[in-house]
Amino acid sequence: MPAIVAASDEEDTPHYHGHRQRLRERLLRAGPDALQDYELIELLLFSAIPRRDVKPLAKKLLAEFKSLWALVNASPERLVQAGLSEGAASTLIITGAIALRAQKKAIVGGALLNNWQRIVDYCRMAMAHETVEQFRLLFLDRKNHLIGEEVQQRGTIDHTPVYPREVVKRALDIGAGALVLAHNHPSGDPTPSKDDIAMTRAIVEACKPLGITVHDHIIIGHAEVTSFKTLGLL
């Protein structure tokens, strides 16, 4: 009777297991800058998809979403449509949320003058990949230190209903002495519309009697940012 030869551990181990270990070791040894974008995505997917070679999937996702930031800020529906399970989609979404929250904490409490570019960068991170319009308020104290930030309204692909009285109410609730307004244009073009200009002027007029200053209104496009102050509209 012929002897039964047991399969070796090496034969039983999927080929991508060694790749996963090597990728982790390179991350720890050389740091994340030594890895390609798709390799960082692979590392995120390892725990969510333990029994599959995720390199082709990582490359496919990066090609479809164009950038790491767009990928980790995509909606759950889009990620599932792209072939991810809910668990894997959650891993990517959580990664984006942690990065954005860390950026927010880094700017809150800082002076507007010293933090301006970081505030603009934060608004771009938070809004550039939104598929509908979103209107944000950034609250400052009397010394122009950022004390808070929040989404005030969400709208449609080309319109966000904003009510000056609600803006003023939130500023008073927070105890803000000044505001920076920000919203995105999902079309990608940050040029202010007539409605944008009219709405901004209405908010400025509503804030004046209460001594609340509107420092700027930032419009976020896909690649560019427009400032009402720079354009002379404030």
Keywords, separated by commas or semicolons:
alpha+beta, 5-stranded mixed beta sheet, 5 strands, disordered N terminus, 234 residues, 51% helix
Radius of gyration, Cα only, in angstroms?
Answer: 23 Å
Q: Please count the beta strands (DSSP E, at least 2 residues each).
A: 5
The helix/strand order is HHHHHHHHEEHEHEEH
- Uncertain spans: 1-12
CATH architecture term of the largest domain = 3-Layer(aba) Sandwich
How would you characterize the overall build of this protein?
It is a single chain. The protein is elongated. It is built from eleven helices and five strands; from the N terminus they run ααααααααββαβαββα. The chain has two domains: 14-100, no CATH class; 111-231, Cytidine Deaminase, domain 2 (3-Layer(aba) Sandwich), CATH 3.40.140.10. The protein starts with 8 loop residues before the first helix and ends with a helix. Mean pLDDT is 88; it is low at 1-12. A hairpin with a 5-residue loop joins strand 1 and strand 2. The chain has a five-stranded mixed beta sheet, with helices on both faces. With 234 residues, the protein is α+β, with helices and mostly antiparallel strands.
What's the arrangement of secondary structure elements?
Elements lengths: L8 H4 L3 H15 L6 H12 L6 H11 L2 H5 L3 H6 L4 H22 L4 H16 L6 E7 L5 E9 L9 H11 L3 E7 L9 H14 L5 E8 L4 E3 H4 L3
Parallel strand pairs: 3-4
Antiparallel strand pairs: 1-2, 1-3, 4-5
Short recap of the structure:
This protein is an alpha+beta fold and 234 residues long. The chain is built from eleven helices and five strands.
